[in-house]
User: Fold these one by one.
Assistant:
Number 1:
Amino acid sequence: MSKVLIFGISGFVGKYLTQEFVNCGYSVFGSDKLNSGIPNGIPFVEADLLNEIQVEKVISDIEPDMIVNLAAISSVSASWDIPQVTMSVNVIGALNILEAARKQDKKPRVMFIGSSEEYADSDKPINEETKLNANNPYGISKMAQERFATVYRERYDMAIYCVRPFNHTGVGQRDNFVLPSFCKQVAEIEKSGKAGVIQVGNLAAERDFTDVRDIVRAYRMIIESNDCTKVYNVGSGRAYSLRELLEYIVSLSNQDITVEVDPKRFRPIDTPRVVCNYNLIEKELGWKPEYRIKDTLKEIFEGYLGDMNGERGWQEYDF
Ligand SMILES: C[C@H]1O[C@H](OP(=O)(O)OP(=O)(O)OC[C@H]2O[C@@H](n3cnc4c(=O)[nH]c(N)nc43)[C@H](O)[C@@H]2O)[C@@H](O)[C@@H](O)C1=O
């Protein structure tokens, strides 16, 4: 049975990726800075990605066939407040994994998660040929990570995979991201049984959102594929304005909701429209999205309405 080691397993995507690999018969191991709750039955080792000795020890003890790194500063907004930390975690952290992996006798496959935020603004749907020219600290860190991955792949003959996912969401995503934030605020008003006010940022932005379950399926298919030099876009191929998605979420409630624009939620730069062209991964690996984002939004909203506070129950991950 192939062994997969996931760094950043305690985060939102980690839980879904674990489930994806377990469902496909892999033996999954997890590592994170803190054990903030990981699926039962998954071996866990605490390690700080910025501690190269700890990272190397985890990898040499487990001897994985594959490593996926999900540990990152993942919020574009946060990256403007803490650009140094963003570069450090997202780039030095990746380098610590690369350095440890290249020292193993049996070199594992390694996968790094990039982002649509690496691309320059584009009027057209973004394919993999679109110029990379990030306009925020987070995107720059992901470009740097990808460049290191390419150089290590070529210089040390390692199987290093990179992928560029577009925005994604699902039950359990933190509410500093836009869609859980909107769902949580609207659900709280609904639960209160009276009219209320919600705070929003730039509703004119148009983004291409995919369900996290489609995203993790793409990650697995990519790291299972044979050509690690291909970097695939993963997204839905359709952009919605945040205004339209907010209107949909508000329509799930029976209360009167007032929308207030909070200038603090705006960023120094916000690309107006981002749409994914996923033809390459569809043609070469047969991946395409299966979930519809409005169904995902309903699940997130209902999660906040119920007792789960938007968190998926751990029992679903009892392997
Ligand atoms: C592809 C990319 O996807 C994500 O990027 P993000 O920008 O951090 O995501 P977000 O959900 O914070 O913002 C999305 C959009 O929504 C707008 N927006 C409006 N109103 C609010 C608002 O009230 N809150 C927030 N957070 N955003 C708002 C905001 O201005 C922006 O245009 C990460 O996973 C990242 O890791 C990644 O790779």
Number 2:
Amino acid sequence: MQVYLDNNATTMCDPKVVEAMLPFFSEQYGNPNSLHKFGSSTHPALMNAINQTYKAINASDNDDIVFTSCATESNNWVLQSVWIDHVLNGDKNHIVTTEVEHPSILSTCKFLEEQGVKVTYLPVNEEGVVEAHTVKSFITDKTALVSVMWASNETGMINPIKEIGEICKEKGVLFHTDGVQAVGKIPVDLQDVHVDFLSFSAHKFHGPKGIGGLYIKDSQELSPLMHGGEQMGGRRSGTLNVPYIIGMGKALELATENIEETMAKIRAKRDRLEDALLELSDTFTVGNRDNRTPNTILISIKGVEGEGMLWDLNNGEIGASTGSACASEDLEANTVMLAIGADNELAHTGIRLSLSRFTTDAEVDYVISHFKNAVARLRGISSSFAKQAPTKGGEVQEC
Ligand SMILES: Cc1ncc(COP(=O)(O)O)c(CN[C@@H](CS)C(=O)O)c1O
């Protein structure tokens, strides 16, 4: 049995999404900006996809949604253009973000620091969540932007975005949220939550890789990163990726049409899996389930290196990760586990399991069985663990 439990890295394209996309590769393949029928024949489906996208996040007609190639582009666009508009051409010089953002935020902030921008990387609490009062305390009159992810790709933990948005609105500071792990997974209602910018990416909610978007509140000014061609009203030049935009729209419709019911079904499987794995001695999972995306588990297994566990799971045809795929090449400790206070040894034991609406009960049963056997195998050969007698209480005593 093959079981895919790395849906926070990317998801399978829903077959219904593929079906919606197909006609726009070799039948209705015109450039939407062309004046002839080959181009204009794509417009009805494009408009439908745009409407599906607006509906999925409850954006208003006054707002802009600009299609990008991915959330990494969307994140880079917001950070670099706020720098251009409000630092280089304004009187601001400060950005507030968190220690646990995705590399596309953290690396871009590092680049901006090299250009002289002051960046505050806020700590997270023991649950991996940034607290709204902490954000408030670091905003100054020189702050150009606050950027806090809606939900963590590593832990699934959900940040207090509504509170932070109210603080930023009150202080007159622009607010960006990286919504990649929220859109299509939990309710995102931008008439209820104040954000100026929101990044999202289709391959996180069973759409195609290579298409994402940036929500821009009230269609406010934001210098373009991509010039030439004037598509999207000049906000993001480049020929529109018609099949992928249509695929993203369909994926959003499928992901959000009964989102509460879908979340409940995924959470039931996740909780059953998490409860079973926590029966193993000296394990813990990060974060309160009630404040976590319904599909994610970040579990620490004392005495078992994350990479070794991944290898064993992979041998059992189970796909998981030690954290963000972007960081999977390096054998560094999980940065989020370090940020919540785990020591370096423990931070190397994290395994991220992320389910989807396609995960079955039979797959969960298989993973439970294989995971427990793998832990027993790996602990049996672990020098650091073998000497210790695991206890129910989790406090392991020297033999
Ligand atoms: C919160 C967050 N923000 C941005 C991205 C990047 O999305 P792209 O569309 O691939 O550019 C991701 C993708 N995180 C994957 C791959 S690194 C993970 O394994 O966690 C994300 O989770």
